[in-house]
Each structure stands twice: as C-alpha cells, then as structure tokens.
Amino acid sequence: MGNPMKIRATAKDGVTEVKVLMSHEMETGFRKDSSGNPIPAWFIAEVTAKLDGKDVMKAQWGPSISKNPYLSFKIKGGAAGGKVAITWVDSKGDSRTDQATIA
Amino acid sequence: MTAHPRAGLATLLLVAAVSAGVARAESDATIEGIEKYREALRDGNPAELFEAQGEELWKKPAGPKSVSLETCDLGMGPGVVAGAYAHLPRYFADTDKVQDAESRILTCMATLQGVDVKKYVDARWTSPEKDELVALATYVSGQSKGVKVAASATHPKERAMFDLGKRMFYFQGGPHDFSCATCHGQEGARIRLQDLPNIPTQKGAAAGWTSWPAYRVSSGQMWSMQWRLADCFRQQRFPEPIYGSDVTVALSMFMAATANGATMDTPGIKR
Amino acid sequence: MTDQPLNRRGFLARAASLGLTTALVTTLAPRLAFAEWNKAAFEGKTPADALKSLGVADAKESADIQILASDIAENGAVVPVQAVSKIPGTTQISVLIEKNPSPLAAVFEIGPDMLPDVTTRVKMGQTSNVVVLVQAGGKHFTATKEIKVTLGGCGG
Amino acid sequence: MTTNLRIAALSALLFAAPLPAFAAESAWGPGADDAAFEAMLKSGFREKGIVKLDRLKQDATQAFCSDPIKSNAKDAAKARAEIEAANLAAVKWPSDGKFLGDFKAGEKIAQSGRGLTSTDKADQVNGGNCYNCHQIDKAEISYGTIGPSLVGYGKLKGTSEEALKTTWARIWNSKSSNACSNMPRAGHMGILGEQQVKDLMALLLDPNSPVNK
After folding, report:
1. Are B217 and C80 in contact (CB under 8 A)?
2. Which of D45, D52, D58 is the closest to B172 by Cβ?
3. What was the pLDDT predicted at C155?
4. What whole-number percentage of chain B has pLDDT above 70?
5. What superfamily in CATH does domain B47-270 come from?
6. Superfamily, domain D103-205
7. Is C153 close to D111, i.e. CB distance below 8 A?
8. ipTM of the predicted assembly exceeds 0.85
9. Chain B residues with beta carbon closer than 8 angstroms to that of A33
10. Is C57 in CB contact (< 8 Å) with chain D?
11. How many Å is the Cα radius of gyration of chain C?
12. Cβ contacts (< 8 Å) between D58 and chain B: which residues?
C-alpha cells in the first residue's frame, strides 16, 4: 500500500527530531487532466507517530500539503535505539506504516 | 514646463539612479529569499524516495530471465555501482558504443534480464516504464554522490562523441532559432528567476551535470538527465530526442567531460 | 475539540451528500485515534469558514508564534513552513493559506510528549498570507506571514 | 598536409602530458564530420505531436549562427552584414501602416511562453516568451536577464517614425540588426501574427504601458 516512507530520527539533548518523507500524489481535486476532466482529490488525511509504541503525534492534513510530503517534528525524550513509527491514512482509506530506529 | 532643460535632465538622471538602486535592493532581497527557500528544501529531498525505489528495482529479479541488475557492468566491472555514474558516459567494448548511465542500464536490462527494451525507449515520460528507468538512474547516481566527475577521454569514440555533443549544443533550429547555447551559453543569465548554468565552462557544466537526476518541485516528479535533456529540446521547439540515443549521449559526454573534477551531488532538488 | 459531536454529524451528512466513498467513512473513521478528520474545516472556502469549523470564535495575534519560512517561494507547489509556538500549554498548531481555495492545510495535535515545533511543506496557488493558529489553554492565537510566490519560467 | 601534421604533432605532445580530458581543441563545428552529425540527428530524434522532423532543417541564418566562434570572428563581418540585410529585406511592415496596438493585450503576449512545442496543440495561441529573457514591468520580480531590460524603453525611444520602424524590425525579425541575436524572429518565423506584434509594440512604446510607468 503505497511506497515506503523515508524516516530519520535523531536523539539529541533529550529531544528526538523526526524527519519524514512520504510518497503520495496529494491530489487537490481542483486539477484537470489533459482532456479537461477533473482529477478527483486523493490525499493523506491523517498522520500519526508513535515513539516506542506510544502515541506522540497526530495530524490532520488537507490537500494543500505538497506532493510527496515532508514532515518534521520534535518529541520530548527518546533515545538512540528507540523506535519511531509513522502511519498515514489517505482519503481513499489506504494506509501505510513504516518504522525507523533512532540514531 | 519652464524648468531649465539641464535641471530636468539632472532630475531624470537622479530619478534613474535612485530607482536603479531601489531595483537592485529589491532584487538582492529576492535572491536572498530564493536562497533561503532552496536551503529549506535541501533538507528532506523527496528524491530519496525514488532512490529507494530504484535500489529495490536494481536488486529484485525481473524480466524473462528473472535475474536482478546487480551484476550489471556500468564501466567499473560487473556489480560495481559505487562511483560508476561519475565516470560516465564512457566507451563499452561489448556494445562498441559510448553510453551514459541510462543507455547502459537499458543494455543490462536487455542482456541480463532479457527485457524488450524498445518498450521502455518508446514509452512516454511518466509511464510506468519510464518511472522505472528514472528510479534506476536515481539510485545509480546516488551511489556516486560525493565522487569526483571523471569522464574518460582516452578512446577515439569518446572523443568523437564529445565533439558531436559540442556541435549539437550550438546547433540552432526550429521556429525560435534556439540551440542549447541560447540559454546555456552565457555567464550569469537567467530565465525568469531560474539561474542558467553556462555549460561550456567547467563551473557551468558542473552545475548542470552534478545535480541531475533531480526532484522537480514544480511537478513533484523525479527527472533523470535524459528527461532533463528531452524537456530542454521540447522547450527549444525541437522534435523529441529518443531515449538513450547518440544525441543525448553526445550532449552528456560534452557536459560530463567539461565538468571533470567537480563533485557529484546527486540526486538533486530543483525548482 | 469541544464541538466534535457536531462536527461528526456534519461530516457524515456531507459525506453522504457528496457521494464520498464508503471506504472513507467506514474504513477511515474508526482508525482515527484522536479526532475525526475535520471535513468541514478542510473544505471551508475562506479562512473564516475554516476557523469556524475548527471551533475558533476569537483568536488573538501573538508574537510568541514564529513562522519560519522564506519570504519568497520559487515555486508554489512546495513551500516549506515551520511553525513554532512559545505559548505555554500549546495543544494544537494549524496552518492556513489565506488565498488557497481551501485555506486550511494542516492541524497538528501537540500532545504532552511533543514540542510545539512542526515543519511541513504546503502548496500555494499565489502570493498569500500564511496564518499559523495556535490553541493553548482553550484559547486561540495567530501569527501571519506573507509569502510571495513567483512565476515559473518558459511555459508560464 | 604539413599543417595537419603539425597539428597532429602538437596534439600528440599535448596528450603526452597528464592533462585534464579534452584539453586540446579539435574540430567540432559545421564542416567537421558532417556525415556523423547528420546520422546522429537522423537516428536521435522522432516527431511528436505538432513537431515534425523538418524543425531540424536549418535556414542560412541558423546554419551560420551554429558555430559561435566562426560567426563572431572578425573576418565574418561581411557574412554577418549579409545575413542581417537578408533578414531586414524579409521584414513585413504593418499592412495598414499602423504600428501600435493594445498594450494590455501586449502584456499578456509578453507573459506567455506557450506555443509550438511538442506538447502544445495546433490551435494554441503562441506567446512571445518576452519575460523569460527581459525585464519589462518593474512590478514583475520574475523576469529573465538573457536580453536587456526594457523598462522605460518607450520613454527612451519616443514614437518617431524611426523608433517605430526600428522597434518593429527588432520584434518581427531580430536578426535584421544582429545576425546571431538570441532573440527569436517572432514575425518572420510565424511565431506571432501582425496584430500580436502591434500589441507588443504598444507595450514597449505606449506612454501608459507598464514599461513606461
């Protein structure tokens, strides 16, 4: 379901910085194809993050987020070797979860 | 108007000088703003997503023979990917041709995997076939990140390719009289706000050659050098260059050899 | 969000009237751990519509919100925006693009384990104000920054 | 022959030293290996959409300008003058004697870079591509610098008969005054029609246009 994300998580001074790239069209629904037919909206609507299995972040997105979205946020705590898992759910109900080890 | 003509002229000059100054300040702010924007994009280049896809394609058995591309010879011996892109295009004895990374990948797909590559050559950009080729080129180029460009110059066919590429670079045609040189043959020029590398110089060739394949922010697409060249020709109002053809390899040879010594910074990110 | 039940009814009614896929309603809805996707807010055509659907009645401008972004974007398709709140008790950070057809771009729930500092990339159809809305202690605060979007070359 | 030998000896000498690739200049331009170049063009391009392979057939001006070293050489002055004269002779002047159209329409043409590419449709109205290379309106920050700034052009030139004719000739056929100008020959090559050129004239010369404000 979708292509893998790229997740980078780095712990420093008690804060874990997470940087995520997601592979998604993020179609607005406002665009038309070459024959003039509207392209239906299709976008990541929700993103959640877990640190070592515990929910830490949740976001709701609209189609104004750029194609192949980039997201960066900071978690209090976390240490090298810990796990950060990101899940997205899109407007078609498709979803994907990827995990990275904190460096 | 009763003012002395001299005074009028002086005023005019003063106004001109002031407005020029204002324009310059505005343009400095613009350039600074754009630099900040580009800097913000560099951290988290979506090209990494395509690099990962390319790596998967490279290592996955595929085609009628169901083998991977891992034993492909990109010029540094079978299976050597690290640093290979920085040494291309180069002459390959098995095909008796000078090849860039992308035409060489096609060769490997045909010989190792038994794939009918004509379908890949003919497929339009943004087709699944071309997406595969671009992802593969992105992966291979990424394995040369930080490596110095060293396009070979020893074989007569490489030399001939360089000369043909240079000639193509200056070749004018179409309703607009455009050649590559129209936009890429002068120092410090830009189209709209887009800086144009002066490709016949080492610095200019390096700016172009070392930053493609690149993620294009405007379209959210990953473009290989072949795609970059094809779209330049489209904008020149030229017919479509055939994927991996000698025209494209010749221009790549001209650029790569002119850029020799520069450091690969692929995959890049572009407006 | 205090007006959640109302929003949920609105969401389902609208989803039905728009013929939205059942997959969205049945598959998406139960997975959402914190709140429903706020359809009314994301489809609001003006910043005021979006704010209303987010349950914002009154938002004060605050110098304790920082919008870190370039003054000018070379391409509106990707505009990096970092939003940082220094307001104590920040629980939510939202990003709105005033002139987009649907201004609301993102709502980040800032849980107790998170710093109020998020970076995203948004699409901008044209030069516009970017508004960051912060919820803290049940109150709302905003900051605004104009980002210029330039024209592309050649085809444009 | 002796010259060739001398060049061969020289390049042998040059290549003996560990120099960067292609330190020595070899023949590359028109006349070098025409057969190889033609073969490369023939095998390298295919038609697409409205763009056919005849786009690769050069006229005398394009052929002359495809080797900047030769075309810019001192001894090419006469050839350049001939190219300019031929292009000037081909300029079509406004059929009704009126040079100036509507500057607002001209602004739209100047902003548009569309038309004549392999992805354009045949009925696409062509743009002038002007902003890609020129500054025209001070208010527009996104302008190119391949060509000179045109801000204040009309104030500088006025609207004398001479100014009208010079400007028209520049737009209609840029090569009428500069053999290898980077600027397309908008009218001559059929990129823009007479009315569009008139509108661009107004953009440049009308005192109320953004160029002269």
Report:
1. no
2. D58
3. 47
4. 90
5. Cytochrome c-like domain (1.10.760.10)
6. Cytochrome c-like domain (1.10.760.10)
7. no
8. no
9. none
10. no
11. 16
12. 171-173
**pLDDT digits 0-9 by tens, B128-147:** 999 999 999 999 999 999 99
Cβ separation A21–B220 shorter than 8 A? no
Q: What are phi and psi of C18, to 5 degrees?
A: -90, 0
Q: Is the pLDDT of residue D19 over 80?
A: no
Whole-model pTM?
Answer: 0.86
Q: Which of D59, D39, D55 is nearest to D47 (CA)?
A: D55
- Whether residue B114 is predicted with pLDDT greater than 70 in this model: the reply is yes
Has residue D75 got a pLDDT over 90?
yes
Of B228, B267, B229, B236, which is closest to residue B250 (Cα–Cα)? B229
Cite the active site residues of B: 232
- Choose among A40, B218, A65: nearest CA to C104: A65
Q: d(Cα A37, Cα B106) in Å, to the nearest integer?
A: 35
One-letter amino acid of D125: V
Q: Please compute the mean of the pLDDT values over residues D73-96 and round it to a whole number.
A: 97
Inform me whether the pLDDT recorded for B6 exceeds 60.
Answer: no
Interface test with C, best of A21, A55, A56, A60 (most C CBs within 10 A): A60
Distance CA D170, CA D113 (A): 18
What pLDDT does residue C35 have?
53
Domains and CATH numbers, chain A: 6-30+38-101 (2.60.40.10)
Which chain D residue has the Cα nearest residue C75? D142
Chain C residues in contact with D111 (beta carbon < 8 A): 151, 156
- Give pLDDT tens digits for B219-244: 899 999 999 999 999 999 999 999 99
